[in-house]
Design brief:
CATH architecture: 3-Layer(aba) Sandwich
CATH topology: Rossmann fold
Order of helices and strands: EEEHHEHE
CATH class: Alpha Beta
Helix content: 25-40%
Shape: elongated
Strand content: 25-35%
Number of domains: 1
Radius of gyration: 14 Å
Number of strands: 5
Number of helices: 3
Distance between the termini: 17 Å
């Protein structure tokens, strides 16, 4: 089975799980604890190939216009989350500036 992701790459496997997060949702997940629970559940699902797709350019996003220190802390939170997900948790992490429409289901 092939799972296309907007021309970036395709996952060819029936043994894969992809978590797709917009930057704003990733930040909210980290702040409210969903992030850790979602990764835990993915690791326990039994699939071998775990992918984490982060959509959006958080390095240049204006999370908090007028508050540069707070915006930088939010960016650092996202950087740390993605790095931890890849290095410690063993997920394949991919960042894209913009991805295609989401399929519900």
């Amino acid at each position: 089975m092939t799972y296309p992701i907007t021309g970036l790459f395709s996952i060819v496997s029936s043994n894969a799980q992809v978590e797709r997060k917009a930057v704003e949702d990733l930040l909210g997940s980290v702040e409210d604890g969903r992030y850790k629970k979602q990764k835990y559940l993915m690791r326990r699902c039994g699939l071998r190939h775990l992918f984490y797709l982060c959509e959006g350019d958080f390095e240049h996003a204006q999370f908090f216009a007028g508050d540069a220190d707070r915006a930088e802390r939010k960016r650092q939170t996202i950087r740390n989350a993605l790095l931890t997900t890849e290095l410690r948790d063993g997920f394949q992490v991919t960042r894209v500036d913009k991805a295609g429409p989401r399929e519900e289901g």
